[in-house]
Amino acid sequence: MTKNQSKATQQANMRSASERAAAVREEYARKERRTRTLLVTAAVVAVLIIVVAVVVAVQAGRDTTGEAGAVPSGAVDTYSVAMGKADAPVQVTVYEDPMCPACGQFEAVSEDTLKKYADSGDVQVRYHMVSFLDTASSTRYSTRAANAVGVVLDTAGSDVAVRFHNALYANQPPEGSAGLSDEQLVALAVKAGADEQSIKGPIADLKFEQWVVNATDAWSSKGYNGTPTVTVNDKKVSFTSAHDLLANTEKAIQDALAK
Amino acid sequence: MTVLSSMDPMAWFGFALRLLVGGVWIVAGLLKLPDPAGSVRAVRAYQLLPEVLVPAVGYALPIVELLIGLTLVVGLLVRIGAVLSCILFVAFIVGISAAWARGLQIDCGCFGGGGFDARATEKYPWELARDFGLLFASAWLVWRPRSAWALDNRILHYGTNRTLTGEPTR
Hints:
heterodimer, A: 259 residues, alpha+beta, five-stranded mixed β-sheet, 9% strand, B: 170 residues, mainly alpha, 6 helices, 2 strands, 64% helix, elongated
């Protein structure tokens, strides 16, 4: 009996000894795993942070916003094509993207009315072109067309530039298309009164591309993020439709003149 | 010694969530990368951040989104990626809610674009619902980061005597 008992005890002791050894091995393995996890995590996180930093630097380089660029002669308030007297009591600024359909609708209803106000000497209308819809065409139409407006303004003056701007909306390409080609832009500009030889190169080479980038940033920095945006003496006009926008603009003009 | 019990349905649930959340991040990041200036304007349109921070956030957000997406899809550091994913979704939910509450009509810019959108107000509830859904999916991955077909299983947890859901196998 005692012998058996002693054997059982012996076995129990042996088992607990091997269990203790297993526990030590397990503890060692756990420590090793923890170190490994920490090292791998640190390495991966470091690599990812470097990738983010590099990409941010690249993106900042690709975004030329704010860099100096040539400004077309005749530009009013740096970024606008003006219609009407500079000393008019009321300034109406129309922010537009060449590709924006709502701008096309506003142009269709507002051109004659705004011209009337400009001719009367009461209002200076400023067309401020922006290019935030470049991805809505396959050829960066917004930038190309806005640059073309700058080129026409620079070489042929405000009156021709306004007519060309109107023609762009009368012939507005649909969103998602390739937009008008450079040749079509040149043709419309010539029809508006620009000289073909002096505009061809700068339209193809995007001479005023940086001006267009900065014009878009100026619009965005004022807190505007859609087009058309119309301001009367720097006060934004609210609207729900093109007709509504024109009606509210006229009302704001009358209010400003009455002051 | 094997890590995976690949029969565990939870392992595949986690894998599916990784593909869903990671896939959304990859698409969102890739669509924004080509237009850094547009990304900056989309951030600015929320009118929440001070202007000095706006460009940096605009440049960083697309690549951060893309990297979170990639790490989730391949299953690399899933828990860390899921935590970041949760933080971003909370930020977006706050941003969209704040825009809605203040009557701003902006496209969320979630997948590129951004800026004024006349139909923004009808879209806000759907955008919020989507972001809440993805937030919960991300939170699940924080809670249960182990899943099938994850790089983590090879480089982090190899040799562990634990199942995917974390219980010891002994």
